[in-house]
Design goal:
Family: Belongs to the endonuclease V family.
Structural class: alpha+beta
CATH class: Alpha Beta
Distance between the termini: 19 Å
Catalytic activity: Endonucleolytic cleavage at apurinic or apyrimidinic sites to products with a 5'-phosphate
Shape: globular
Radius of gyration: 17 Å
CATH superfamily: archaeoglobus fulgidus dsm 4304 superfamily
Strand order of the largest sheet: 3-2-1-4-5-9-8-7-6
CATH architecture: 2-Layer Sandwich
Subcellular location: Cytoplasm
Order of helices and strands: HEEEHEHEEEEEHH
Largest sheet: 9 strands, mixed
Number of strands: 9
GO molecular function, one term: deoxyribonuclease V activity
Protein name: Endonuclease V
Number of domains: 1
DNA sequence: GCGACAG
DNA sequence: ATCTTGTCGC
């Protein structure tokens, strides 16, 4: 079980996010190059060992899964809406270090700037690593949903059905996309850092292969859940994992 | 006080 | 996220 965090510390984490978003918002421009290798990040949870973070590498052109890395460990923080990055990013960072390839882009399960302080987990990670990052979330966290299309008008998928607007300024923070024929609910695509909203949309929709999630996140999701199951069944031991045990000393500020 | 609330 | 049985649809 993760530690409970006092309200005083929560305020400090919120201040850190304001600092992060200040820098990240100035980085939201087109990368200027097409991605070659793309990382997908997702986490599942094992009852025994805690978080199971998986980083995968996908070849953007072929869609091939080239590599993956795992990090496990008990998160230091409980889940608090808006503060997900402080819970999961340390594990993601560890998983990333086990990767054998360099990469151009990160696709992360969760939000980017479509966040109360414009500092979702994709923003934290993209800014810290100095790479383009995109958040792909399955549920809205913040903002007003604006529909630019009726659901019935979406014949060809993926279909951009609307966007999420900043309640203060009306600025577009994320696009809502129906990834395939089956899904009733959209996915939310927002830039994390070092990329703009339009490029984020194009890039992610081009990696939708009939699945609800884009290929990188799709694979990371499947692998992390699978490993969490094996761990809880005792079929797999933490020391057998590629990427090893998670060191949680990164991304967590001293509070 | 009430509703919202990534994973 | 995870816990869980049945159930709707291709």
């Amino acid at each position: 079980m993760s530690m409970k965090t006092p309200y005083s510390n929560i305020r400090k984490l919120i201040e850190i996010q304001k600092n992060i978003s200040y820098k990240a918002l100035g980085s939201l421009r087109p990368p200027g190059y097409a991605p070659r290798l793309v990382v997908g990040l997702d986490a599942a949870y094992s009852r025994i060992y805690g978080g199971v973070a998986v980083a995968v590498i996908i070849d953007y052109v072929s869609g091939s899964l080239l590599d993956y890395s795992v990090a496990i460990g008990e998160p230091r923080l409980e889940y608090i809406p808006g503060l997900l990055a402080f819970r999961e990013a340390p594990l993601f960072y560890t998983a990333l270090q086990g990767l054998r390839h360099e990469y151009d882009l990160l696709v992360i399960d969760g939000h980017g700037i479509s966040h109360p302080r414009k500092a979702g987990i994709a923003t934290h990670i993209g800014l810290a690593l100095g790479k383009p990052s995109i958040g792909v979330a399955k549920k809205k966290l913040y903002g007003n949903e604006v529909y630019i299309k009726k659901l019935g008008e979406c014949n060809v998928h993926p279909c951009t059905i609307g966007y999420v607007a900043d309640p203060e300024t009306g600025e577009k923070l994320a696009y809502m996309v129906l990834p395939n024929k089956r899904s009733r609910a959209p996915i939310y695509i927002s830039p994390g850092a070092n990329i703009d909203l339009e490029t984020a949309l194009k890039t992610v929709t081009s990696m939708l292969k009939g699945t609800r999630l884009p290929l990188p996140t799709y694979h990371a999701d499947k692998i992390s859940k699978h490993i969490a199951r094996l761990l809880d069944r005792g079929v797999l031991k933490p020391n057998q994992l590629k990427g090893g045990l998670g060191r949680l000393d990164h991304f967590m500020p001293r509070i």
